[in-house]
Design brief:
By secondary structure, the chain is an alpha+beta fold. The protein is built from 22 helices and 7 strands.
Length: 463
């Protein structure tokens, strides 16, 4: 006779509880879960929840349901994650599924049709240039501009223009945000400045002005490409509408005790790369991307400088950065064994081609966030260390051209944006001699007369 089945959950749940767990997933096959009231539902049409233990000790709850976006949230304790998962399950079970976006195959089909149409439009534009106005090519281009959606133009822009940009990875996220907005469903030839203004106002309610400004610049360039390269007779509404107000530039610098707190927090981390990465950023004013792309072939410890190739810089111009004694010490600690005991002629190309910091940008970002939180420092970004380094260069007495050669700034305006001299140092440099010595020097004039009790005379600048 078969054993009695548990009445706490239906049969599909019992079979699901026996499934092997994935990496890091705490499966629902623990005894206390079988006795829990209202167990998780796994059959078709009902939400599916899972609890995952994070490497740093937290618990992540994830609820999935077909037709809905995945809901994810991380908690400190497992009980909090379970409670949130149950509440989210009940909310998803009664919520109406949102209208799904077109599948990738549909988007690809739209892009293919658009590509052929654009190609025909370019032929018509070339023909129109030699035969005058009013020919079929111009009419075809106008008709195409009234049919092609901004969504389709964004997909083509993402395939043809974005891969050639240095910030292609970030631009993919910007295009993804534009595709979710209602403006993407408007024909590109019928979008006016009013539509762009409405999109701007909607975005400003959700994100900061800097994010909207980057998307604005992409839209502006897309319309220019469509007009000049794709042959579409469209105006540029982003050129007519009012641009978002640029954000206030950051002027954050390290405060007293923060560098020591960062140093102590780095000692408590498991990453051996973060501490030298921070000190090199302060001593060289290099960007995080330049530091992470730096190879041992770019480092010259004998002469005390780092050569940053043009392909690694934001301005596409190579520059040489001098090394301070502290920067040399940090780099010497990171030298791999295969390079430490070999002469220059014996060093292999494979060893020299290795990166100094063999970590990904995301790993460096997460390590920095954890370290800042551990050091109890508020509102400090890694890029603020570049502001700190630039300001320190001026405080050391370097002139403008010397600092610009190190930081790579091409204009005085950008260099000024990264320079924040501490008022305390200015006060020290503006300090006058003590009153007694100043009075002794100004009491007698060169002719022997005493003017110590006279009122200061007003100096006229007029001739």
């Amino acid at each position: 006779m078969s054993p009695t089945k548990s009445v706490s959950a239906p049969l599909p749940l019992q079979s699901a509880l026996k499934r092997p767990s994935r990496r890091g997933l705490v499966a629902l096959n623990q005894p206390r879960w079988q006795a829990a009231p209202e167990p998780y539902s796994v059959w078709s049409g009902r939400p599916v929840a899972s609890i995952t233990k994070r490497p740093w000790g937290g618990w992540q709850a994830r609820v999935r349901l077909n037709g809905h976006s995945t809901k994810t949230k991380t908690f400190t304790t497992r009980s909090e994650a379970v409670a949130w998962a149950r509440t989210t399950e009940q909310a998803l079970a009664t919520e109406t599924p949102a209208r799904r976006k077109p599948k990738s195959s549909q988007a690809l089909s739209c892009y293919q049709n658009l590509h052929h149409a654009f190609r025909g439009c370019r032929v018509g534009a070339d023909h129109r240039a030699g035969s005058g106005h009013g020919d079929p090519g111009e009419a075809e281009a106008k008709e195409l501009a009234g049919v092609v959606l901004l969504r389709q133009a964004l997909l083509r822009y993402q395939d043809e223009i974005t891969p050639h940009k240095r910030g292609a990875r970030i631009e993919h996220y910007i295009i993804r945000g534009l595709l979710k907005d209602p403006i993407a469903d408007l024909p590109i030839g019928k979008i006016t400045a009013v539509d762009v203004t409405a999109w701007r106002n909607r975005r400003l309610k959700k994100v900061q002005s800097g994010t909207v400004l980057r998307a604005w610049n992409l839209l502006h360039h897309l319309f220019e490409v469509a007009r000049r390269e794709w042959g579409l007779p469209v105006d540029n509404p982003a050129h007519i509408a009012r641009r978002p107000k640029p954000p206030i530039p950051r002027d954050r610098r390290l405060r007293d005790g923060e560098l020591a707190a960062l140093d102590a927090a780095c000692d408590a981390t498991r990453s051996p790369w973060l501490k030298p990465l921070i000190y090199l950023a302060i001593d060289t004013a290099m960007r995080k991307g330049e530091l992470l792309l730096m190879k041992w072939s770019d480092v010259n410890l004998a002469d005390g400088h780092i050569l940053i190739p043009a392909v690694n810089t934001k301005t596409s111009k190579a520059r040489t950065v001098p090394l301070s004694p502290r920067a040399r010490e940090n780099l010497e600690r990171l030298i791999p064994p295969e390079l430490k005991h070999e002469t220059t002629s014996q060093k292999s190309a494979a060893a020299l081609n290795k990166r100094v910091f063999p970590i990904t940008p995301n790993a460096a970002k997460l390590a920095w966030q954890r370290t800042v939180k551990r050091a109890n420092i508020q509102n400090l970004h890694f890029h603020d260390l570049r502001h700190e380094a630039t300001s320190r260069f001026f405080e050391m007495g370097l002139d403008t051209m010397e600092v610009a050669a190190i930081t790579g700034h091409e204009t005085l305006q950008m260099l000024k944006r990264y320079t924040h001299i501490k008022t305390r140092r200015l006060v020290d440099r503006m300090a006058w001699p003590d009153d007694a010595s100043r009075a002794a020097k100004t009491a007698k004039a060169p002719d022997g007369s005493d003017h110590s009790n006279e009122e200061p005379r007003e100096v006229s600048l007029s001739r």
